[in-house]
Write a structure and sequence with these properties.
Pfam family, one: MarR_2
Protein name: MarR family transcriptional regulator
Low-confidence stretches: none
InterPro entries: HTH_MarR-typ, MarR/SlyA-like, WH-like_DNA-bd_sf, WH_DNA-bd_sf
CATH architecture: Orthogonal Bundle
CATH topology: Arc Repressor Mutant, subunit A
CATH class: Mainly Alpha
Distance between the termini: 28 Å
Shape: globular
Number of domains: 1
Order of helices and strands: HHEHHEEHH
Strand content: 5-15%
Mean pLDDT: 91
Number of helices: 6
Strand order of the largest sheet: 1-3-2
Helix content: over 70%
CATH superfamily: Winged helix-like DNA-binding domain superfamily/Winged helix DNA-binding domain
Radius of gyration: 17 Å
Structural class: mainly alpha
Largest sheet: 3 strands, antiparallel
Number of strands: 3
Length: 136
């Protein structure tokens, strides 16, 4: 079977199942992506998040509004650009990012359960190699 098709199909299945599990936990996969990005960067402007997550401005704007309303994010003035603001996770946003990570880890563990530990490690090495090549 074609490698490209397999990768796309597996990715689609994982994304669907992760989104369903996250929705049961009160957020969407896109909202979790924002929380996850801020969890690692600590703070960012909306434009930086949009670029990092490959989202357009209207999409990231709507996600941010919903996350602020849920009290997972706070906005503060951007000292470098008065037209924008800096986003930070609240304590509940940090907790929700961690919950999402745990859900993601459990889902991936379940999906990879038919592979041995050695096969999972090999898969990780190969995917990391492909991913690294894409960034260069």
């Amino acid at each position: 079977m074609n490698t490209g098709y397999l990768l796309i199909n597996i990715s689609k299945q994982l994304r669907y199942h992760l989104n369903q599990a996250l929705i049961s936990n009160g957020i969407t996969i896109q909202q979790w992506a924002v929380l996850q990005q801020l969890s690692s960067e600590k703070e960012a402007a909306a434009a930086e998040l949009a670029a990092a997550l490959d989202m357009d401005k209207p999409t990231i704007s709507g996600i941010i509004k919903r996350l602020v309303k849920k009290e997972y994010l706070i906005k503060k003035d951007n000292p470098r650009d008065s037209r924008s603001y800096i986003l930070l996770l609240t304590k509940s946003g940090e907790a929700k990012a961690l919950e999402g990570r745990q859900i993601s880890d459990e889902l991936l563990t379940d999906h990879l359960s038919m592979l041995t530990a050695e096969e999972q490690q090999t898969l990780n090495v190969l995917l990391s190699k492909i991913n690294q090549n894409k960034k260069e």
